[in-house]
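Following up on my earlier thread - several people asked me to post the actual chain instead of describing it. Fair enough. Here it is, all 304 residues.
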Amino acid sequence: MTSLVPDLPPGYRSRPATVDDVPAIHALVVECEREVYGRGRSDVGAVAADLARPGLVAESDTVLVLDQGGRVVARAWVDRRSEVDVRPGHRGRGLGAALLGWTVARARQAGVDRVVQTVPDADTAAVALLRANGYESLVTAWLLEVDLSVEPSVPEPPVGVTVRCFQAGDEVAAHLLVQDAFDEWQERRQSYEEWAAHTVERPAFAPGRSALAFAGGQLVGAALALDVPGTGEGYVEQVAVRHDHRGRGIARLLLRHTFRAFRHAGLDACTLWTHSDTGALDLYLRVGMTVRHSSTVFRKELGA
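Reply from S.P.:
Thanks for posting it. Predicted structure:
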């Protein structure tokens, strides 16, 4: 299958991404985050995990845009969902539109029936571009934060429940717990390899700050945490509680354990993402978190 090439404005060229490009892509992503959020929040491991997604073929599913000096100034990838980033100093030149068109063309070529992209609500130009190209709102996502300037209180566990930090050997059970818990809203179950690349195998994974709950010797809840370098904040990648143990305060308990661990590590705040399909926003608000930023997940149906 012939790889598609985006129709770029003069002065730019493109090529697929490789694993050697991860540091340059990470620098691009962080610069874009700082433009919108005032701070960077992504780590190198997240970029590497995206490039290693099962089914993603870098040669055909990724694009880097380089300026005349060979610097990476934009990137895109598409594989069931898509991401497009353009360096702030190169916006307004048509790169975003070209890459958006490329993601749609590549998705159609791959036989995908729709393409999904998440855009910060504060990036009004990107939101307008997607809407102008037929994208519709799918769900709302929120980045929540909790201030750790005060020691978080940790409630007593429910009767029969014990809590400890994540340990080597917990990986398989944690994967099964998360997939079972997320079945209600996620489109598909992730393989262990895909899940692990975004969680327990990331360099930023913090097992000592990740809390697990057990009942009768069985894992019934998990809060998996990351310590992203350079942010001064902790991050909770996933929170999951087994269906038959919900409503007992286990998620609140695990979050408070994780918040306290980050507080003891000298961090100022802890954050996490959630979205409207999970129904978890009220839980996070009840444990003292507040909304820092919002994003919208957009979808474009591609049809036949």
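The CA atoms of residues 4 and 109 lie 9 Å apart. That should answer part of your original question.
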